[in-house]
Amino acid sequence: MPVSRAMGSRYTVEYSKEMQEYFEFVKDLLDSDVVNEMKNYRHHYSVTCFQHSLNVSYYNYLVCKKLGLDARSAARAGLLHDLFLYDWRTKEKKPGEKPHGFTHPQIALENAKAHFDVAKREEDMIVKHMWPLTVKLPKYAESYVIVAIDKYSAALEISVHLGRLMKNKAKQIKNRKAS
Ligand SMILES: [Fe+2]
Ligand SMILES: [Fe+2]
């Protein structure tokens, strides 16, 4: 069984007692080939699509649970919201095709529906997670939560990358001074 940890969390989702409920909600997704395929695609710097989706899923679950919203849908939609399965940096665009930011929520939803049962609330969360880029208003409170958590997770991932860069730079300067 793969060990997975959301960034910033001390716990792996498979083994922590605290996360037992979360894991039960997403176990079938985490065990599926199609969700694991996201490990092949880089998303924000060195963070893969899988790690980003796990981050969104985990924090979405925590926030929706705290707010008394549908935590199961939050966990599942979070893991599926970016299931577009291509490298958005290198994918060729067809003439007239809108940029990735506008198109991938619909592609992710189609892929999710092809492999799993996706509830109406989860559909809305997946297809509106880029709102307000995707113009249609979210229909559920959980959809507004994923809009915020997706951006929070992206910021976390980018800041971890920048932190690593700064650490390496500081190390280089220190080594230069020492030599
Ligand atoms: Fe996305
Ligand atoms: Fe995302």
Provide a descriptive summary of the structure in words.
There is one protein chain. This protein is mainly alpha-helical. The chain has a single domain (17-178), classed as Hypothetical protein af1432. The protein is built from seven helices and two strands; from the N terminus they run H-H-E-E-H-H-H-H-H. Strands 1-2 form a two-stranded antiparallel ribbon. Helix 3 packs across helix 7 (141-178), helix 4 (71-80) packs across helix 7 and helix 6 crosses helix 7 (141-178). Bound molecules: fe (ii) ion (2 copies).
Features:
mainly alpha; Hypothetical protein af1432; 7 helices; 2 strands; 59% helix
Mean pLDDT: 91
Number of strands: 2
Strand content: under 5%
| Separate helix tally | 7
Q: Which spans have pLDDT < 50 for at least 5 consecutive residues?
A: none
- The name CATH uses for the topology is Hypothetical protein af1432
What CATH architecture do you see? Orthogonal Bundle
CATH secondary-structure class: Mainly Alpha
Helix and strand content put the structural class at mainly alpha
- Shape by Cα distribution: globular
Q: Strand arrangement, largest sheet?
A: 1-2
The ordered H/E elements are: HHEEHHHHH
Quaternary state reads single chain
Number of domains: 1
Enumerate the distinct ligands: fe (ii) ion
Relative helix content:
55-70%
Rg computed from alpha carbons, rounded to a whole number of angstroms: 17 Å
